From TrEMBL:
<dbReference type="GO" id="GO:0005525">
    <property type="term" value="F:GTP binding"/>
</dbReference>
<dbReference type="GO" id="GO:0003925">
    <property type="term" value="F:G protein activity"/>
</dbReference>
<dbReference type="InterPro" id="IPR050227">
    <property type="entry name" value="Rab"/>
</dbReference>
<protein>
    <recommendedName>
        <fullName>Ras-related protein Rab-36</fullName>
        <ecNumber>3.6.5.2</ecNumber>
    </recommendedName>
</protein>
<dbReference type="Pfam" id="PF00071">
    <property type="entry name" value="Ras"/>
</dbReference>
<dbReference type="GO" id="GO:0000139">
    <property type="term" value="C:Golgi membrane"/>
</dbReference>
<keyword id="KW-0378">Hydrolase</keyword>
<comment type="similarity">
    <text>Belongs to the small GTPase superfamily. Rab family.</text>
</comment>
<keyword id="KW-0547">Nucleotide-binding</keyword>
<comment type="function">
    <text>The small GTPases Rab are key regulators of intracellular membrane trafficking, from the formation of transport vesicles to their fusion with membranes. Rabs cycle between an inactive GDP-bound form and an active GTP-bound form that is able to recruit to membranes different sets of downstream effectors directly responsible for vesicle formation, movement, tethering and fusion.</text>
</comment>
<keyword id="KW-0472">Membrane</keyword>
<keyword id="KW-0342">GTP-binding</keyword>
<keyword id="KW-0333">Golgi apparatus</keyword>
<dbReference type="InterPro" id="IPR005225">
    <property type="entry name" value="Small_GTP-bd"/>
</dbReference>
<keyword id="KW-0460">Magnesium</keyword>
<keyword id="KW-0636">Prenylation</keyword>
<keyword id="KW-0653">Protein transport</keyword>
Length: 267
């Protein structure tokens, strides 16, 4: 496993003053889960006895802005200058260990559908993060970001985390950086998204950006698991071999029925 996929330090936002996500250290819940995993795995680093957590991140933006290149730089550490339209790829799966807890991130690239601006809702559904990408060397691509973001976010019942990414920063002249940042930050603010600048060619900020998505979606998943655990009424309570369940008899009253496990005759 690559060292970069073992996350023990909390990855902070590129600009901590403007991000809508103020979290800049691991929550106590994440630390407790990690301690629990260390204890039940008998301290074997990289081994786990607890369920792998998952997140889905989708990438959207005009054709040619650099979505596939960004994903390829992160997942395979490759960069190709020759343009090849994406065909037939659904998603990449990247495995992380976040504070000793296994975590898989599905990274969804478009399969060229963005050309027709009609990406199916099933592509967006169940996203934990939406990454809207524009080309810093072609600011026209910034003007469509709101539509991409709205379409992707709107297909989700639970609001995903939002990121706005300026790619191809290696093509931007130093004197223009400030202007790009100003325009990018203004758009990010409008979208309620966290702003990043990257270059898939040089690798600038690529690792940091993906680590940030991984850790924020991991923390968001933990928070919603905890909320759900406190709000959902328990339907069935498993007590060792016995199963306690509520059943309705013909008179309509509720009572507790107890089922015995066949391998536990003396219970
Ligand atoms: N110089 C430079 N070119 C890039 C960068 N990212 C992508 N490209 C080029 O931009 C073109 C479109 O990239 P691609 O990733 O296929 O865009 P997509 O259609 O959004 O997936 C390709 O020719 C890439 O080589 C970058 O960071 N720097
Ligand atoms: Mg592509």
């Amino acid at each position: 496993m690559k060292v970069s996929r073992q996350l023990t330090e909390f990855p902070v936002a590129l600009d901590q003053d403007t991000t809508p996500y103020g979290l800049n250290q691991f929550t106590p819940s994440a630390r407790s889960l990690s301690d629990l995993n260390s204890n039940i795995s008998n301290g074997h680093p990289g081994s786990s006895r607890i369920a792998v957590r998952m997140a889905k991140a989708v990438f959207v933006g005009d054709v040619g802005v650099g979505k596939t290149s960004l994903i390829n730089r992160f997942c395979r550490d490759i960069f190709e200058l020759n343009y090849k339209p994406t065909v037939g790829i659904d998603y990449e799966m990247e495995r992380f260990w976040i504070l000793n807890v296994p975590f898989n991130m599905q990274i969804w690239d478009t399969a060229g559908q963005e050309r027709f601006k009609c990406i199916a809702a099933s592509y967006y559904r169940g996203s934990n993060a939406v990454v809207t990408v524009f080309d810093a060397s072609d600011l026209e691509s910034l003007s469509t970001c709101q539509r991409w973001m709205d379409d992707a976010v709107g297909a989700n019942a639970v609001p995903p985390l939002k990121f706005l990414v300026a790619t191809k920063m290696d093509l931007v002249n130093e004197n223009h950086r400030e202007k790009i940042d100003q325009m990018g930050l203004r758009m990010a603010n409008l979208l309620g998204a966290e702003y990043w600048t990257v270059s898939s060619k040089t690798g600038e900020n690529v690792e940091q950006f993906f680590r940030r998505i991984a850790v924020l979606t991991f923390e968001m998943g933990l928070a919603s698991e905890i909320t759900e655990a406190f709000t959902r009424p328990p339907k069935q309570i498993h007590l060792n071999a016995a199963v306690l369940r509520t059943s309705n008899n013909q008179d309509g009253d509720s009572r507790v029925a107890m089922k015995k496990c066949s391998s536990c005759k003396n219970f």
